[in-house]
């Protein structure tokens, strides 16, 4: 009996996900975009020391943030950039993607324009929604984080990081777009390199920031659909055009 | 001597304003937009009771928020909608604009697309930057407010209100755009009617919200340039298009 109840629950969950997927698709599918349902993950550990070291190294736009660590011998190695865990892994920048996929089970999506559908927005902070996005010959890490910068007042922060160096990141522009209830919010910026810690980007507030009330206005049945587009940054060279 | 010192100060101020105007124009002038320098004003009084009454009345989409006040006899009268002062004035909706211009010295600008250049963003909260905008046969009130929703953490809130009824407001879409340092933030929404109190719109967070750090990224030498465009809301009927 318990087995059948669980099966029924699982079927209901599937129907619910399918329904959310359909609703997001209805809003965003005009351009034939891929909708990806992303479930939340609680941040297990926050490692400020690693981030500080990583950030210091990127000022010189060189690879090895890890040479600040005593244990690292090869200056070509970078630490694991997964914002969820304080992971002891270190490796070359070229294998960060496969580490994130295999060890941290972060999905990767293809396509210049996708829809990131974050579920269960009501979950308490700190919570992260993470996905990798492959396009224009590079891989990007999209992080949506619910965090209490001011105690008792959670906010949502969304940013895109290039899995590459800061100088490579300067060649791209990413756009995050929310569109619901006759409201539209767009954020466009140059992605940061994952060598600059995602925690620093969020604490600097240099990303899309949503108060809870605004997040609720844009979310539908507890899920937030974010349209994502990446382009090469030629269009950004002139700030004059509106 | 004092006179000459003051004159010199005034000339310096004029040069500074001219310089800010020029810089904003350089960023936004591709479309030949009008740049308007808006100085801040400290909110002198906050009148929550009037706002609550006004908001209650607009749920029925009728004009007279004031019929909740004991002193009002004519149901066609509306209270002064200036968010800066608790003004005892009451009059018909059609003369609100002339009251705001004459009594509260709020400037009015013509044109479908203008640039609102708010100066002295560093001033402590609460501070308002206010202007009226005339286009498409209607007048709109643009309010940028610096307010501490969470003590010690000022934020900026920007919204556009139609000087008209809620049903008239539904015919329009307004867009606020910030564009600087390879970052762009756009907010599009249906304007609210001034019969719905601006304080409620801001406390609901249903507007463009900027943390101080983001406002600093977009501001230049203490001034924030906001591109404003108003269109009829046909384009909003389909949320499908990205």
UniProtKB/TrEMBL annotation, chains A, B:
One Gene Ontology CC term in the entry: cytoplasm
CDD domains per the UniProt record, alphabetical: Sina
Pathway the protein takes part in: Protein modification; protein ubiquitination
Annotated signal peptide: none
Location of the Seven-in-absentia protein TRAF-like domain: 134-228
Record remark on domains: The SBD domain (substrate-binding domain) mediates the interaction with substrate proteins. It is related to the TRAF family. The RING-type zinc finger domain is essential for ubiquitin ligase activity.
Protein name: E3 ubiquitin-protein ligase
Organism ancestry: Eukaryota, Metazoa, Chordata, Craniata, Vertebrata
């Amino acid at each position: 009996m318990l087995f059948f109840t669980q099966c029924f629950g699982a079927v209901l969950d599937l129907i619910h996900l399918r329904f959310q997927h359909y609703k997001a698709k209805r809003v965003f599918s005009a351009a034939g975009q891929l909708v990806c349902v992303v479930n939340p993950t609680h941040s297990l550990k926050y490692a400020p020391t690693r981030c500080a070291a990583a950030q210091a190294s990127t000022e010189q736009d060189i690879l090895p943030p890890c040479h600040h660590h005593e244990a690292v011998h090869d200056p070509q190695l970078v630490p694991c950039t997964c914002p969820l865990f304080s992971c002891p892994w270190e490796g070359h920048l070229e294998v960060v993607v496969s580490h994130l996929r295999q060890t941290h089970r972060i999905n990767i999506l293809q396509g210049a324009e996708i829809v990131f559908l974050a579920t269960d927005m009501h979950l308490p902070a700190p919570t992260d929604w993470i996905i990798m996005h492959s396009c224009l010959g590079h891989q990007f890490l999209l992080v949506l984080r619910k965090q209490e910068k001011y105690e008792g007042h959670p906010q949502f922060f969304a940013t895109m990081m290039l899995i590459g160096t800061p100088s490579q990141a300067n060649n791209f522009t990413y756009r995050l777009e929310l569109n619901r209830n006759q409201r539209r919010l767009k954020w466009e910026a140059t992605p940061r390199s994952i060598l600059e810690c995602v925690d620093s980007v969020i604490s600097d507030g240099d990303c899309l920031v949503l108060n809870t009330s605004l997040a609720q206005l844009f979310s539908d049945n507890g899920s937030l659909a974010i349209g994502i587009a990446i382009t090469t940054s030629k269009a950004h060279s002139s700030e004059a055009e509106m």
